[in-house]
Every structure is written in structure tokens, then in C-alpha cells.
Design a protein that fits this description.
The chain has 239 residues and is of the alpha/beta class. The chain has a single domain, classed as Rossmann fold (3-Layer(aba) Sandwich), CATH 3.40.50. 32% of the residues lie in helices and 28% in strands. It has a six-stranded mixed beta sheet with strand order 6-7-8-3-9-10, sandwiched between helices. Strands 2-1-4-5 form a four-stranded antiparallel beta sheet, covered by helices on one side. Helix 5 runs parallel beside helix 6. The chain binds adenosine-5'-triphosphate and magnesium ion. The site of magnesium ion has 3 residues, from helix 1.
Amino acid sequence: MGRRKLVELQKASKVYKILGGQEFWALRDVSLEVYEKEFVSIMGPSGHGKTTLMNLIGLLDKPTYGKVILDGVDTAKLDDVQLSKLRNEKIGFVFQQYNLINRLNVLENIEIPLILRGVSKKERVEIVRKAIELVGGEEIWFTKKPNQLSGGQQQRVSIARAIIGDPQLILADEPTGNLDTASSKIIMQTFMRLNDSGKTIIAVTHNPEVASCTRRVLYIRDGSIIKEEVPDPSKCVFK
Ligand SMILES: Nc1ncnc2c1ncn2[C@@H]1O[C@H](COP(=O)(O)OP(=O)(O)OP(=O)(O)O)[C@@H](O)[C@H]1O
Ligand SMILES: [Mg+2]
């Protein structure tokens, strides 16, 4: 198939210097390829390198050794300004703790990237309205502060914020980590819908039910990818 390789890691390692001058390899020689329109999950025990890996893919951190190639661009060649431009263009982030700004209302939280792009107020409201609809939210949320919404609702707002700039790639680090089963289901249905509409998604999860609804699962252990599985889609309990 002629599908585009959106993410490529070539023997990427992340090495921290720890006390006593010793080295700690948070990631060791990780090579992976993620193609456009894939939905990949990453599983593994706590402290084994999942967030470190996501930070490399999301251009929030650089590998000590190896390469991170995003949509054909070798990111080692970019300076910080070019890196953040590429990141803002291509990637939307969703975090376990939602990371919304409680001082701002929902509309203001979601429209920030549009303000940075110089979109007019009228257009911004229109675009945010569509994003909120896409994640199954309601317009009455617009004037609420994030902490006036439930965890599941806040996570939907954070997904709306992640997709507002129309990124090709969504990176989610334990997006259902703080949610009960009912809310997890809504979040997963949202991701599956976004994936059906063409978004590439990479999600870290501790929940096997979440992983079973993705199209490919990577298992990480001690900083290395040790195996890969393709779940049976009929086993997804969140459909
Ligand atoms: N700045 C740092 N200096 C030294 N070690 C670090 C640093 N950042 C992370 N680590 C170590 O790297 C390892 C991987 O951390 P990481 O956050 O990627 O784990 P994780 O798989 O996301 O865990 P969790 O499931 O708990 O979120 C951990 O052992 C952590 O202690
Ligand atoms: Mg983590």
C-alpha cells in the first residue's frame, strides 16, 4: 500500500545521567514506524519508557542517540523554532490530567491555537462549535470553566483542543487513566471516530480494553519494544 509513513524512529535511545555519573537508558534502540490513519496503542509497566517515547514522537524531547523522522522530516536538523512550528502543525496532544486552564472558559481553552493563527473571533466560534460537536460535547459548555465539568467532559474538551488546528497526528498519554468505564467508552468512541475520519492516533494506556480497540499494540519493557500485536476488532468492548 502506498500509505504515508507519518512517524519513524530509527534506533532512538534516551539516556539520562543519574547520580554518581551513571547512565540510565530510559529508551534503548527503539525503532518503529507509524503510518497515516493508524491507531496504535502503547502498553507497558510504569516507569518503562512510555511517556519518554511519546515525548520523542511529539518533538517535546530529543533522543540521545538515533533519529525521529516526522512526515519525512529528519527532526534532528531543525532548530527550536522549526521544531515547534512542525509540532503545532502536525500534532495534537491529549494528557491524562486534561491540562486545561481553569482560569479560562471552555471556548477560550479550545480557541487558543486559532488566536495564534490569527483567525477572527467569529470564525473561531464556528470552528470550536464544530470541534465540540465532533467530540460529542455541547455548546452550553462554552462559558463554563473546566472544573465545572466532569472528568470525562473535560477530557472531551481537551480532545477538541487537540484537534482544533486539524493535526494529522494525535498523541494521547493515558487519556482514560483518570476515568471510569463509562467515560472511557465515550473517549474511546471519540478516538475511533476521529481515526475513521483519517486521524492517526498513538495512545499510551494501562487498560487492555482500551488497547484492544486500537489497530496495533506495541508492548514496551525496560525501554525497548518487546512485541507487537494486532487485536481482533470484534473484541473491542467500547464499540
Ligand atoms: N529527567 C530524568 N532523569 C532521570 N530519569 C528519568 C528522567 N525522566 C524519566 N526518567 C526515568 O525514565 C524511566 C521512564 O519514564 P517514563 O515516564 O517514560 O515511564 P512511563 O512508562 O511513562 O511510566 P508511567 O506508566 O508511570 O507513566 C523511569 O524509570 C523514569 O524514572
Ligand atoms: Mg507515563
